[in-house]
């Protein structure tokens, strides 16, 4: 399952078929537009160079935390003060609203809708996953070329690849070829 914060990290895109081939999609206006649209966020596009730098720094930070969580199964490395600092850059207005089913509930609307408020939302989503969900379900795709970050929401908790049809199949073929190669050389 993709979430707001994993989608943000995955903007550092790696080609699952080829080692070392990657693209920073965060810098693309088309990616920025799609991301804001998908998660119902608002900001000006394209992001300025200063905003991009801040976004890339945050992405690196969250990626480091993700690596530590996946490797150590612990959230000890997280600098919570740093995350609070980023969330504090976007004060909110509380307002009740109706959802699609006409249910009223309180929502938090950023005072200013810009890339700072987007970063605060991304951090808040990450914090929500770490505090309220199961960090054991945070995964990095087992295909070393892919590195896609996702949250395993399957019942069996055994999802190893971002997609079985792409990375799962590719790794199956690689394992098969490696086995065949080693049996031939014996
Ligand atoms: Zn993958």
TrEMBL record:
Residues 137-180 form the Zinc finger CGNR domain. InterPro entries: ABATE, ABATE_dom_sf, Znf_CGNR. It holds the Pfam family ABATE. It comes from the Bacteria. SUPFAM superfamilies: Jann2411-like (SSF160904). This is Zinc finger CGNR domain-containing protein. The lineage of its organism: Bacteria, Bacillati, Bacillota, Bacilli, Bacillales.
